[in-house]
Amino acid sequence: THSLLYTLKNILNSVSVALVDSGLNIKAIACSGYSGSDSHETVVNFAAKDEILGIWSDFQDFDSTFDQSIDACENDSAQLRKEINGYLLKKATKNAS
């Protein structure tokens, strides 16, 4: 089973993908990243240029482990952003021909 935070990440990303797929002219696409372990979970929603829009976490102490969690979320978010950009390029190329 998946946690609420993992599900939240997927919901946020699904909304972003739906907006992109709708053809609306969007200046910046928000993408969420997830980091989870047995002791902590974190979801971070990023805008363009990796600006943080929101953080959902169960951390009690904000130490270096929290920083590592944010970095992992950023990497996860970047992967989705690459996939969305690839989709947009493919769609633009298809429409141009």
TrEMBL record:
User: InterPro entries given for it?
Assistant: PNPase/RNase_PH_dom_sf
Q: What is the protein's name according to its record?
A: Uncharacterized protein
Name the species this protein comes from. Answer: Wickerhamomyces pijperi (Yeast)
Organismal lineage = Eukaryota, Fungi, Dikarya, Ascomycota, Saccharomycotina
